[in-house]
Structure to design on (126 residues):
């Protein structure tokens, strides 16, 4: 069975350095490990459909989520690193995708591309 990478890094690129800086400031609140994401789940115990609200704290799935400078020192882009906990449940991937979707919806209109996946921590690229 293939092991899921511990580190997943995304490159976020904006049209201007100002947009990149504003987006980084906005993201820093969204990647706080104490942040709770609420998910609605439909269950059917005894054939009766019910909706349940499930709370997911980022810190229960990730050891760290952080921003790094881009390798080429581009002021219009930066890296977003997700460090998954070894025992994180399946929902870690959904949380990561939800954060990336929030970024795509921002007025800065950033593009997002996978930068790397692996078991070694990305080196700060300042």
């Amino acid at each position: 069975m293939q092991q899921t990478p511990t580190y997943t890094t995304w490159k976020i690129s904006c049209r201007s350095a100002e947009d990149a800086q504003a987006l980084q400031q906005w993201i820093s609140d969204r990647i706080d490990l104490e942040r709770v994401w609420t998910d609605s789940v439909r269950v059917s115990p005894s054939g009766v459909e019910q909706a349940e609200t499930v709370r997911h704290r980022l810190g229960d799935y990730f050891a760290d989520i952080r921003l790094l400078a881009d390798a080429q020192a581009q002021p219009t882009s930066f890296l977003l690193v997700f460090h998954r906990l070894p025992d994180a449940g399946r929902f870690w991937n959904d949380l990561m995708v939800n954060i990336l979707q929030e970024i795509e919806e921002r007025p800065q209109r950033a593009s997002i591309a996978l930068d790397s996946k692996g078991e070694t921590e990305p080196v700060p690229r300042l």
Observations:
- The first strand starts at residue 7 and ends at 13.
- Residues 17-30 form the longest helix (14 residues).
- The two ends are 36 Å apart (CA to CA).
- The chain has a mean pLDDT of 89.
